[in-house]
């Protein structure tokens, strides 16, 4: 009897363990973060030819992010411009997950109507579709906006294609003298325009969180001086012109303060300058070492900076109101020029190994460092506002150029193609 | 004087009459008083004839009766004999009385003659008249005497007849009684026979009953025996059935166990195939899963998949969202892109993949 009961129980347990009721579930972990295949079909034309190749700009934007792998034009099976022309099976065959189509029309060559539709190929579903009216001059900006929409729709993150880059160019005049310019370009490096020119060096541009002000250092008055310039009006103001060194301004997250490096007391130290009052407070107190290149943590309470107090430059963290600094970098004998990701989790820096300087990221939680670049004179890394890319300057053929690398190091690209030497880039925040 | 004679005459006559009457009364008995007048009124001759006829009839009747009786039974004869003897005695007595009567008459006549002779001288003078009257008187007396004789005889005959009738009645009654007795005897005999028969029948019945009872008892015993036998057989059968049932139960237990083991083996085999294909499917879907780069932080979604035979995806739906539309879509798309999913040829294992789930989560 007992054994029979046992058998029954055993049978029940067997059936219970057998997934007759519960559905078989297969765990999928990992996966890859490879670029997402997307088909960006050249937009159709009606009336006047558009001044910009919108689909090409979008495609390049998406590709530059490292998150998308746009199909080559030659791979496109067909070129629909409207939803009803789409045969999803075709695009599935190409393993394309997204499909972007659109068209541009104009009556006068001045004003254009642009529409686009983004589809999920596997679900045969339109994800987003919009229509715009823009002047010819707005066409490029619109293309970046559409790229942002596509990016955000398909990745869930904000795109940075409508943001801007600031950087300093150095040109040699015919007489051999140098001319410096503070320039702002589209996020792809294209469309640069100069906001400040000087015969003296311009250094360390820094975007205010409002996306409308830049702080930078000039030597135009024969000494280092920190200015804040309003981009929309061009108005600028000197905010730090102390004796000695005035350099490396960094905006606090609330846009009310600047962390700066001053040597007014003899040794370069980190100070916090309250812009509205001009009130200055000293953060670091180490007369034997250089403390510079401050950057605010997103919480606004801590500041990272570079110091050689340990003998070689390393990154330290200190409370914004002073106190004991904590060293963050231990790998390698040179770590400088830190920037912090918008989420505060990643730090990018210039990592020197054997006299070569690469862009690296360090996980602030684990301390793990990953070198992202292989070029040799990389400098001034700056996170994109979505934290996905890092803008930096590097040398190509002995000349400084802009480059960007994805935080995973997979995507590297040159940005812009000006004839000037480019240094000290900074990525803008999102547009307000 | 005259009166004396008359008186004497009348005295003699009265005495005679008295005797006759007495005699008649003796014979007739009580019946005399009942029918004296009708007898007196009957004509004399016819009465005599009737007497003779009656006697004959009686005799005939008697003879006939005798004959009949004699033929039938001797006891009756004896009785008849007695009756006859009685009758003869009565007749003898009657004859003796007759004689006495005649003697008396003789003496009266002698006396009268004497008286007549004595009175002859006295009567001589009136002789003639007296003679006449005397003759007439004699005639009348004679008639009277005749009448009285006749009457007496008639009475006697009647008495006899009555006697005979009584006798006859008695005989009849006796006969009837005898017959009754005989009938009764017969009835009794019959009754007895009947009773005897009944007794015999009763006996027979009792015997039959006894026999039946015995038969019943015997049968009951046989029945009891049979029942016991049946019970024994039933018990035997039951025991055998139970044994058989036990044996079968054991067999079926074994069979079940074998089947169960077989099922378990089969289940293990199917599970092995399912596991193998789950791994293949997992690897394939993994390869096609483009995980959003920002999806590290504990996102997880479950998609339910229906497959067509051959492994093509029929339907994919999010049954448990990660809360992140892009992540969810990446999972759905991964399944679609991985199609056709490898499918086992074993139908049982393949059935597991008709409808199943993926749980997508970054490392």
From TrEMBL, chain A:
Signal sequence, start to end: 1-22
SUPFAM superfamilies: TolB, N-terminal domain, Tricorn protease N-terminal domain
Residue intervals of the TolB N-terminal domain: 24-127
Alphabetically ordered keywords of this record: Cell cycle, Cell division, Periplasm, Signal
Keyword Cell division: yes
Main location: periplasm
Claim: Iron-sulfur is one of the keywords in the record: no
Subcellular location: Periplasm
One Pfam family matching this protein: PD40
Reported function: Part of the Tol-Pal system, which plays a role in outer membrane invagination during cell division and is important for maintaining outer membrane integrity.
HAMAP family registered for this protein in UniProt: TolB
PANTHER family on file: PROTEIN TOLB, PROTEIN TOLB HOMOLOG
Family stated for the protein in its record: Belongs to the TolB family.
Quaternary state and interactors: The Tol-Pal system is composed of five core proteins: the inner membrane proteins TolA, TolQ and TolR, the periplasmic protein TolB and the outer membrane protein Pal. They form a network linking the inner and outer membranes and the peptidoglycan layer.
Protein name per Swiss-Prot or TrEMBL: Tol-Pal system protein TolB
UniProtKB/TrEMBL annotation, chain B:
Chief place where the protein resides: membrane
Subcellular compartments: Membrane
Entries under Pfam families matching the protein: TonB_2
Keywords, in A-Z order: Membrane, Transmembrane, Transmembrane helix
InterPro entries recorded: Tol-Pal_TolA, TonB/TolA_C, TonB_C
Source domain of life: Bacteria
Domain TonB C-terminal: 273-363
Region (Disordered): 70-269
Membrane-traversing stretches: 9-30
Ranges annotated as biased composition (Basic and acidic residues): 70-82, 89-269
Membrane topology recorded in Swiss-Prot or TrEMBL: Single-pass membrane protein
Keyword set includes GTP-binding: no
Name this polypeptide is given: TonB C-terminal domain-containing protein
Organism expressing this protein natively: Methylophaga marina
């Amino acid at each position: 009897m007992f054994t029979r009961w046992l058998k029954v129980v055993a049978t029940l347990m067997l059936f219970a363990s057998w997934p007759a009721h519960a559905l078989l579930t297969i765990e999928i972990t990992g996966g890859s973060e490879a670029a997402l295949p997307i088909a960006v079909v050249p937009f159709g034309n009606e009336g006047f030819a558009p001044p910009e190749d919108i689909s090409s700009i979008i495609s390049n934007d998406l590709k530059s992010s490292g998150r998308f792998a746009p199909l080559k034009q030659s791979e496109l099976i067909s070129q629909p411009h409207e939803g009803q022309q789409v045969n999803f099976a075709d695009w599935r065959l190409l393993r394309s997950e997204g499909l972007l189509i659109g068209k541009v029309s104009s009556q006068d060559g001045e004003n254009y109507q642009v529409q686009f539709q983004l589809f999920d190929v596997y679900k045969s579903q339109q994800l987003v579709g919009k229509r715009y009216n823009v002047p010819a001059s707005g066409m490029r900006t619109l293309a970046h906006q559409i790229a942002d929409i596509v990016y955000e729709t398909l990745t869930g993150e904000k795109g940075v294609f409508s943001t801007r880059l600031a950087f300093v160019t150095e040109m040699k005049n015919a007489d051999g003298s140098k001319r410096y310019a503070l320039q702002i370009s589209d996020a792809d490096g294209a469309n640069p325009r100069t906001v400040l020119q000087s015969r003296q060096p311009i250094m360390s541009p820094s975007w205010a969180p409002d996306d409308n002000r830049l702080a930078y250092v000039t030597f135009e008055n024969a000494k280092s001086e920190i200015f804040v310039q309003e981009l929309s009006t061009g108005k600028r103001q000197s905010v730090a012109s102390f004796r000695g060194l005035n350099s490396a301004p960094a905006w606090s997250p609330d846009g009310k303060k600047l962390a700066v490096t001053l040597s007014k007391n003899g040794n370069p130290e980190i100070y916090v300058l309250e812009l509205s009052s001009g009130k200055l407070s000293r953060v670091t107190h180490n007369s034997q070492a250089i403390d510079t290149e401050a950057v605010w943590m997103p919480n606004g309470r801590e500041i990272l900076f570079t110091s050689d107090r340990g003998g070689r430059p390393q990154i330290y963290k200190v409370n914004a109101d002073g106190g004991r600094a904590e060293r963050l970098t231990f790998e390698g004998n040179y770590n400088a020029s830190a920037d912090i990701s918008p989420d505060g989790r990643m730090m990018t820096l210039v990592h020197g190994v054997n006299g070569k300087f690469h862009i690296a990221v360090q996980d602030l939680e684990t301390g793990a460092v990953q070198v992202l670049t292989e070029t040799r004179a990389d400098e001034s890394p700056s996170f994109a506002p979505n934290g996905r890319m890092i803008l930096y300057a590097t040398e190509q053929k002995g000349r400084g150029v802009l480059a960007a690398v994805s935080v995973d190091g997979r995507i590297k690209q040159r940005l812009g193609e000006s004839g000037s030497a480019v240094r000290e880039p900074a990525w803008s925040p999102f547009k307000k | 004087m005259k009166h004396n004679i008359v008186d004497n005459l009348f005295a003699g006559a009265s005495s005679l009459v008295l005797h006759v009457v007495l005699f008649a009364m003796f014979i007739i008995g009580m019946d005399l008083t009942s029918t004296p007048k009708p007898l007196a009124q009957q004509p004399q001759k016819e009465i005599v004839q009737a007497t003779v006829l009656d006697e004959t009839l009686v005799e005939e009747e008697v003879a006939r009766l005798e004959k009949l009786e004699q033929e039938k039974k001797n006891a009756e004869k004896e009785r008849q004999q007695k009756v006859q003897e009685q009758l003869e005695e009565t007749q003898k007595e009657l004859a003796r009385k007759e004689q006495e009567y005649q003697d008396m008459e003789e003496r009266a006549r002698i006396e009268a003659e004497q008286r007549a002779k004595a009175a002859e001288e006295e009567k001589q003078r009136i002789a003639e008249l007296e003679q006449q009257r005397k003759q007439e008187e004699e005639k009348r007396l004679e008639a009277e005497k005749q009448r009285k004789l006749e009457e007496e005889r008639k009475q006697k005959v009647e008495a006899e007849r009555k006697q005979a009738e009584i006798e006859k009645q008695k005989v009849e009654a006796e006969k009837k009684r005898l017959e009754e007795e005989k009938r009764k005897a017969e009835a009794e005999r019959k009754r007895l026979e009947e009773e005897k028969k009944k007794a015999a029948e009763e006996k027979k019945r009792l015997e039959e009953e006894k026999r039946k009872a015995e038969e019943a008892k015997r049968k009951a015993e046989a029945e009891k025996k049979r029942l016991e036998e049946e019970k024994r057989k039933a018990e035997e059968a039951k025991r055998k059935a139970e044994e058989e049932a036990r044996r079968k139960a054991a067999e079926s237990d074994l069979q079940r166990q074998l089947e169960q083991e077989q099922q378990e083996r089969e289940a293990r085999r199917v599970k092995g195939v399912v596991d193998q294909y789950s791994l293949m499917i997992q690897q394939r879907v993994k390869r096609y899963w483009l995980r959003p780069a920002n999806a590290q932080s504990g996102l997880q979604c479950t998609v339910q998949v229906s497959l067509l035979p051959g492994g093509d995806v029929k339907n994919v739906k999010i049954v448990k969202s990660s809360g992140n539309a892009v992540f969810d879509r990446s999972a759905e798309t991964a399944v679609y892109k991985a199609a056709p999913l490898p499918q086992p040829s074993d139908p049982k294992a393949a059935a597991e993949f008709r409808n199943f789930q993926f749980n997508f989560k970054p490392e």
